[in-house]
Design goal:
Layout lengths: L5 E8 L2 E8 L18 H4 L6 H10 L2 H6 L3 E4 L6 H8 L3 E6 L1 H15 E4 L7 E3 L5 E2 L9 E4 L2 E4 L2 H4 L27 E3 L4 E7 L8 H4 L5 E5 L5 H15 L10 E7 L12 H10 L2 E9 L7 E8 L1
Parallel strand pairs: 3-4, 3-12, 4-11, 6-8, 12-13
Antiparallel strand pairs: 1-2, 5-10, 6-7, 8-9, 10-11, 13-15, 14-15
Helix pairs in contact: 2-4, 8-9
């Protein structure tokens, strides 16, 4: 995304400051480069805004939810700018941010790279750290991993890597905090200081889950204010139900945290009523429990539901 016509938004989470760039929707001189994309719709365009629901989710990530996500494999549906999903990664989660392809390519990956501190490194890869301590691409394979600090490559055992955080002259080996996690998604990069990672993939609710997800294990699903049009409710719930029927690595049930807000008036035929979303949960064999209500700057409160498969 080019700097022209963009706004930087920041959030503190997990001891890190996450920064994302989003489109300036009030910049009349800028053109929307995604306007003619096949999957670009009015609904997709709203992903370039940070809604109240994202802030409500970030607030919970700074509490017990952030602790719950540490080390867990997470999928975020309808990630939009990626701010909330990146905050989840900063808490130590291994997060797959998702949206339609135009948003993934032009918003999510640039914002992941903006906050990344190094690749999620496999245990049999050598790691080189450049002069300022940032990780660069692995340059070979070895029986034991090796880390290059101050120009000197030292072989180390996999169990020792996590403890290497500083070289003799104080350079931070940032990548060492993200080594060898089986929960990291393909292509993930390290985010923050708690061992979390982030990657991104297209998940279109009107299509089947991509094989990289449908054949994977999963712990937690997150989404915030992603379902606001009536036409999105059924495809969203179908996608959510498919993900909830996956299992964790240990075979336990997957759990979802759904943040939403009532935006529809009683007579609305376009906007999704919260009651309709909850009815669809039940129709698809999902159980929902209200776990949090936050009164935001607008009239309607933001609600968080914990959803599981029956």
């Amino acid at each position: 995304m080019s700097a022209a016509g963009t706004i930087t938004v920041e959030a503190e989470c997990g001891g890190a400051v996450i920064r994302i760039k989003r489109k300036d929707l009030e910049d009349s001189d800028s053109q929307d480069p995604n306007f003619f994309d096949d999957d670009y719709t009015v609904a997709a365009a709203t992903g370039f805004t940070v809604w109240d629901g994202a802030w409500a989710l970030i607030s919970q990530l700074n509490g017990v939810l952030g602790d719950e996500l540490k080390g867990k494999r997470v999928v975020e549906l309808g990630s939009g700018t990626g701010l909330a999903g990146l905050c989840a990664a900063a808490c130590g989660g291994h997060v797959l941010l998702s949206d339609v392809s135009s948003v993934v390519g032009d918003m999510l990956w640039p914002n992941i790279r903006l906050n990344g501190i190094g690749p999620a490194i496999e245990p049999n890869e050598k790691v080189r750290l450049n002069g300022d301590g940032a990780a660069v691409q692995p340059h070979g394979k070895t029986e034991s991993p090796a880390v290059r600090l101050n120009g000197i490559e030292e072989a180390i055992e996999p169990d020792d890597i996590a403890g290497i955080t500083e070289s003799a002259n104080g350079e931070i080996a940032a990548a060492s905090r993200h080594v060898a996690s089986p929960a990291a998604w393909p292509g993930a990069v390290g985010i923050g200081a708690n061992g979390g990672t982030a990657s991104a993939l297209t998940i279109d609710w009107f299509k089947q889950l991509p094989a990289a997800v449908s054949g994977a294990w999963l712990d937690v699903i997150l989404t915030s204010e992603a379902v606001w049009l009536q036409e999105l409710v059924d495809p969203f719930v179908r996608t959510l139900a498919s993900l909830l029927r996956l299992r964790t690595r240990d075979g336990a049930p997957v759990v979802a945290y759904i943040v939403c807000r009532e935006r529809a008036k009683d007579t609305s035929l376009t906007f999704a009523h919260l009651s309709s979303v909850l009815e669809h949960f039940e129709a698809h064999g999902l159980s929902s429990e209200l776990v949090s209500t936050v009164q935001g700057p607008e009239k309607q409160p933001t609600k968080t539901f914990r959803v599981t498969a029956l």
